[in-house]
Amino acid sequence: MGIELPNTVVLEVVETEPGMKGATVSSSYKPAKLETGITIQVPPFIEAGTRIEIDTRENKYLRRV
Which side of the chain, N or C, has fewer Cβ within a 10 Å radius? Predict the structure, then answer.
């Protein structure tokens, strides 16, 4: 038996530092804890409660959903 994960999933950010006004995707990244317990790096405009799409192969932020 084998399990194959999808390449991307949508998860909710449950904990991160407060967002910054005027922040763009090219700014530095900050850590964010997701509903699964994993912590990934996200852009500074992402706040707790935001749903994001991540790449499951690299545990990398792709976009806000």
Answer: N
